[in-house]
Amino acid sequence: MSILDFIFYSFIVVVFIQALFYFIFFGRFAFLKQNKSTLQNIPVSVIICAKNEAENLKNFLPSIISQDYSNFEIVLINDASSDHTLEIMKHFAEQNTNIKIVDVKNIEAFWGNKKYALTLGIKASKNEFLLFTDADCKPVSKDWIKEMSSHFNNDKTIVLGYGAYSKIKNSFLNKLIRFETLVTAVQYFSFAKTGIPYMGVGRNLAYTKKTFFNANGFINHIKVRSGDDDLFINQVANKKNTAITFSKASFTESIPKTSFKKWIKQKRRHVSTAKHYKFKHKIILTLFYSSNFLFWILSILLFTLTYNWQYVLGLFLCRLIFQYVIIGFSSKKLNETDLLIWLPFLEIFLIIMQLTIFINNLISKPNFWK
């Protein structure tokens, strides 16, 4: 067997692996219909941890306060801010009796550790059902709490939601950020429906206080600076206790980064937590990302060398069709259909950025959350 034969057969295997991922795993979400939620008026604590977020709280906190839900409190955690975050929190608390403030001071053992601040906020909350978002997020509807909390029941103690990013016209970076967010959501929703949930995003996530304390909170990864959302879910989620919701009323929307430098800095922190995932999750994710990378490398190589180009073209187009079908149905669910026309370009660029981030993380550790 020649080297070109080996590359060609490797390409066939890679396309087969990609097809399995798209139809066996991601198809579980793409073709899924949202179950009708059971509306209930359970008491909910909305928890927001903020560090130097005065302006964002001023702009976005009203969208939480005005939620159409009769039984909720808002726990605002000031994580040792150096701006006017605490003053803004106090201003809103004076006007709303359901707001509770937790003012966290830096201590040497947990300096700059968001998990420490969140733990204090969770302990201070009065309700069993906890709903998390960030200070730069806003619910897209007044039914956000209602939609997220409606998926709790005796078995489901974790609810994964979608945290979108707002759209900016004529911005390639914005499209790239939203595409990466879309792909990540398709993955964690799909794996949850397959029975192997592995992460959630803190912009839109809910779980019970009992779930938190039964796991001893963040203690298993307290020294890892990031991962208050995905590492915790990776630790406690299973096929029995995890629900997902993708109704548009359950979405939150955040402010995206506006420079590649800031976005890469943010993604370096996020990616650094993946090495702490459970072994089975690392294997599955590594297989997917590796096959994704090899698909483009091998196809470009084979096209360049014009080796069995008719078969290569057929396999190439089949894989693109798989992807367009699955991402197309998924993007419709998550209101991101404008990205479809850019899909191959966004994927190639995202692979390059992910490889760059991976190499940078090997060379140096990413910074803290703020």
Automatic annotation (TrEMBL):
One family from Pfam that matches here is Glycos_transf_2
Kindly give the InterPro entries that the UniProt entry links to this protein. Answer: Glyco_trans_2-like, Nucleotide-diphossugar_trans
Specify whether Glycosyltransferase is a keyword of the entry: yes
Q: Provide the protein name.
A: Glycosyltransferase
Q: Which family does it belong to?
A: Belongs to the glycosyltransferase 2 family.
Can you tell me where the transmembrane regions are?
6-31, 283-303, 309-327, 339-363
Recorded E.C. number(s)?
Answer: 2.4.-.-
Asked whether the keyword Ion transport is assigned, the reply is no
GO function term, MF aspect, one: glycosyltransferase activity
Show where the Glycosyltransferase 2-like domain sits.
45-179
**Which terms are listed as keywords in the entry?**
Glycosyltransferase, Membrane, Transferase, Transmembrane, Transmembrane helix
